[in-house]
Design brief:
It contains 13 helices and 13 strands. Helix 5 packs parallel to helix 6, helix 7 packs antiparallel against helix 8 and helix 11 packs across helix 13.
Length: 358
């Protein structure tokens, strides 16, 4: 009988040694590692069959997770190989076959400088209350940016911090702050339940791993409105789309109220993409919107499409557009023009910016 636990641990060690960000185990494929955004099959291993992937999946599930997976047919949880290798895991079924995806979580929380993030996002760690959103596609470093900001607060301020995650990813070491990390399904039934309970926990700073539904969004905005500093992530492309997504998640008769609440509480939106570098590795391109009076008025009047213009003209206070960030990376020789255009939401404007720089 095969030792499935030993097999998966060996695959994780190999993927980690290759500098992988993710390990994919799917029926009918070689084990596959993602390195610098590219999928690389481990073709020196055998193709995974249904029995093997199923055995691996159940070897890393405890009884509680197994029961939830069999009921819901998909599950997220954390898996620790050793003190240096920790992963976020997703197990799901596709056409009746099991698939497992491991996302490697670095053991050390990197600083804003080490992550090559704009200095202006430190502004969000220095305020006492508000609503800060980190947005972008899946796998583009939102959790890492959130962790860097929370850890900066932890180093500089004596605060009560609560994180609400599914699953817990980065492990914080308390320095000046008290940090309680809560895992959905293990420490609390849901994101919105945990958010509402923070009102009774004498919390200063709240981090929500992901805002997935109306109830969580509503609770997060309420928390910001009642004097907390709330950080959260959401899968949207830029600041304008983020505001629209939040508003549209509410019933029509509640949208006027949420628009008013957002206009009053929003502190900023950080939108990011991880771009393959010419010399290897990944580097972020980042849009930063800081909520000044002009931004708040545009949200209040629901002129969200004009937020891009407000960002373009807000460079003096630290705002930056995604295209300006991409153009700067090209100018510095960090990324190629083709890659920059691939990740741009407006390639025509990007080409114009690049011509102006030459």
């Amino acid at each position: 009988m095969e030792d499935y636990k030993k097999i998966v641990d060996e695959l994780l060690e190999i993927a980690a040694e290759k500098g992988g960000s993710d390990l994919h185990l799917s029926t009918g494929y070689y084990p596959t590692v993602r390195v610098d955004g590219r999928l690389i099959p481990m073709d020196d291993h055998r193709v995974l069959d249904k029995r093997l992937v199923e055995g691996i999946a159940f070897s890393i599930l405890d009884d509680e997770h197994k029961e939830r997976f069999l009921k819901e047919r998909e599950i997220d949880f954390a898996y620790e190989l050793n003190q240096k290798v920790r992963c976020r895991v997703n197990i799901y079924t596709a056409r009746g076959n099991y698939s497992v995806v491991f996302r490697f979580i670095p053991e050390r929380i990197m600083t804003i400088e080490e992550l090559n993030l704009p200095e202006s996002i430190k502004l969000f760690t220095k305020i006492s209350q508000g609503f800060v959103l980190v947005v972008g596609p899946n796998g583009h470093g939102k959790s890492t940016t959130l962790a860097a900001m929370i850890d900066l607060i932890n180093k500089e301020r004596a605060e009560k911090i609560v994180t609400i995650e599914d699953p817990i990813e980065y492990i914080f070491s308390p320095e000046r702050s008290i940090i309680d990390q809560r895992e959905v399904y293990f420490d609390t039934h849901s994101f919105d339940n945990a958010l509402r309970s923070t009102f009774r926990e004498n919390v200063n700073v709240i981090m929500v791993g992901e805002m997935r539904d109306f109830a969580t969004m509503s609770a997060a905005v309420s928390a910001a409105e009642t004097g907390h500093l709330v950080f959260a992530s959401i899968h949207t492309n830029n600041a304008a789309q983020t505001i629209e997504r939040i508003v549209d998640s509410f019933p029509p008769d509640q949208q006027a109220q949420i628009i008013s609440q957002l206009a009053n509480t929003i502190s900023g939106v950080i939108s990011q993409r991880l771009i393959p570098r010419l010399k290897g590795g990944l580097i972020p391109a980042v849009e930063v919107m800081i909520a000044n009076a002009a931004v708040r008025n545009l949200i209040r009047e629901r002129k969200t499409q004009q937020l891009n213009m407000a960002i373009d003209t807000g460079g003096d206070i630290g705002m930056i557009s995604l295209n300006k960030s991409l153009a700067d990376l090209v100018r510095r020789g960090e990324v190629g023009i083709e890659q920059a255009e691939f990740f741009s939401l407006n390639p025509v404007e990007l080409r114009s910016l690049l011509r102006e720089q030459n």
